[in-house]
Amino acid sequence: MKPIAIFRHLECEGPGYFADFLDQQRIPHILIRIDQGDPVPGSAGEFSALVFMGGPMSVNDDLPWIAEELSLIQRAVERELPMLGHCLGGQLIAKALGGIVSRNPVKEIGWHTVNKQHNPLAQDWLTALPDEFEAFHWHGETFSIPRGATPLLSSQYCQNQAFAIGNTLALQFHVEMTEPMVREWVAEYANEISMPSESIQPGELILENLDSKIDQLNSAAHKIYHRWIRALQRRD
């Protein structure tokens, strides 16, 4: 199998549990460190799938690599290559497919419940998950659902939490988190949670019962990722 290309946009926002999952499944992968100056590949042909991680920047920022990733996503669509996006990564996919990325009504940070949409595709992608489960969030922008895509999840503070189209899954929330990542973000982005609200949890609440929360999140992530790799298996 060709390797999966994972695009990292900031060192502390790496693949986390997703890389662990791929290793468990013995699926090869390579890390493209945009934050370290790694170039965006000109072609998707050498990969079995593309995966995009998060980052504090906006997909609407005038950064050369954003335009290059958007173009790569569009070329991957033409090849029907499976893709997966986490937060910023989901927004990149949405924009490349013609969606709009704009400011969410509120920042959504911390542990908040996401709810399944009532449609057949949501049941297909999320059949192993309960109708609602707790996910980790850290975002101020959100995506619209591109034409031809189907919404899968929503939350109280953000209407569009996930969509699917073909072999592609875009997530607004962070299902890839590990315990060290959560602790690092709480420290690194402390200014963003200095004024808590209903949608922004304080650091002490984010870290409360963290072991249990991460176990549940990893369980949800395993089920989501396991459904996503079906597209890889069909291409073998």
Summary tags:
9-stranded mixed sheet, 236 residues, single chain, 9 strands, 8 helices, globular, alpha/beta
According to DSSP, the number of beta strands is 9
CATH class equals Alpha Beta
What's the gyration radius in Å?
16 Å
> Helicity level, as a percent range?
25-40%
Arithmetic mean pLDDT = 97
User: Would you list the SSEs in sequence order as H and E?
Assistant: EHEEHEHEHEEEEHHHH
Q: Which ranges are low-confidence, i.e. pLDDT below 50, for 5 or more consecutive residues? A: none
User: What is the CATH topology?
Assistant: Rossmann fold
Any overview of this molecule?
With 236 residues, this protein is an alpha/beta fold. It has a single domain (4-235), classed as 3-Layer(aba) Sandwich (Rossmann fold). The chain contains eight helices and nine strands. The chain has a nine-stranded mixed beta sheet with strand order 2-1-3-4-9-8-7-5-6. Helix 2 packs across helix 3 (88-96). The chain is globular. The model has no long low-confidence stretch (mean pLDDT 97).
